Amino acid sequence: MGPPVTSFLPGPLKGFGVTFGTMFKPVNTELYPDKKKPTMPRFHGRHVLNRHPDGLEKCIGCELCAWACPADAIYVEGADNTEDERFSPGERYGRVYQINYLRCILCGLCIEACPTRALTMSNEYELADDNRADLIFTKEQLLAPLAPGMELPPHAMRLGDTKDYYRGTPAAHVMSGDVESADTQRIVRQQQSHSDVQDKAEGAKVTSPDEVAPVEGAEEVKAAAEVKAAGEASD
Ligand code: SF4
Ligand code: SF4
After folding, report:
1. What is d(CA 79, CA 85) in angstroms, rounded to the nearest whole number?
2. Is the CB of 74 under 6 A from ligand 2?
3. Which of 23, 30, 181, 218 is spaced 20 to 30 Å from 80 by Cα?
4. Is 105 in the pocket of ligand 1 (CB under 6 A)?
5. Domains of the chain
6. What is the pLDDT of residues 101-158, one digit of tens each?
7. pTM, entire model
8. Among all ligands shown, which has an atom nearest to the Cα of 74?
9. In degrees rounded to 5, what are phi and psi of residue 6?
């Protein structure tokens, strides 16, 4: 097989060959920022600090996210809640929370480390500015806005005791609709499906002793135990 035909053409003609070949390909023009292309649903974008359905913060100031971050982009300072000034259920809350987007590589390891699902990531990717200071986001910038039915902390726990928050078992006044939010409805749905599963599991339990299969060797073990007990009693 001889050399390709294009190798006999002079350089400029070969260059125009590339141009003509490209002219007939479909055009792919992004109209950003006028038209923003939606990201994939699980795209890792700007972080959000979430709230419980009554408005209390989910962050407990444990710093696990900061320890997990490979880029050292998160700074957390925890503080104690008091009964007069409560920002989250339980003992502590994140008093200072900062994410440095000059360092963050949007890897998502911090959200994996968070034990309360306080920290999640949104699809927001417009994280640019003309100065360094504005790219260090504070807690106030990262906190999720108050949804209908939420109350701005500090305030008392409205959903019952601490376990109700973390086990997703909101007290009766929440289930009756006093505190309305998508999060509350999700918790109530989860609770209902959990009790359905429990009902099914309990219904499937073997309750009659007749249905329990005999354990191999159990009779011998029982007889040996009786002999041992009789010997101890005679001593
Ligand atoms: S996404 Fe990754 S780099 Fe960014 S703050 Fe979280 S752990 Fe750090
Ligand atoms: S965001 Fe999560 S991991 Fe980070 S301090 Fe708050 S509770 Fe702990």
Report:
1. 11
2. no
3. 181
4. yes
5. 44-188 (3.30.70.3270)
6. 999 999 999 999 999 999 999 999 999 999 999 999 999 999 999 999 999 999 999 9
7. 0.67
8. 1
9. -65, -25
Of 109, 112, 113, 104, the C-alpha closest to 72 is: 104
Decide if 96 contacts 130 (C-beta within 8 A). Answer: no
Any atom of ligand 2 within 6 Å of the Cβ of 143: no
Q: Please give the backbone phi and psi of residue 188, each rounded to the nearest 5 degrees, phi first.
A: -65, -40
Contact 30, 129 (CB under 8 A): no
Q: How far apart are CA 69 and CA 55, in angstroms?
A: 27
What is the layout of strands, in order, in the sheet containing 92-100?
A: 74-80, 92-100, 136-138
What residue's CA is closest to ligand 1, atom 7? 69
Distance (Å) from CA 131 to ligand 2 centroid: 27
pLDDT in tens, 154-195: 999 998 888 888 887 655 444 444 444 444 444 444 444 444
Q: Which structure tokens are listed for 54?
A: 């009554």
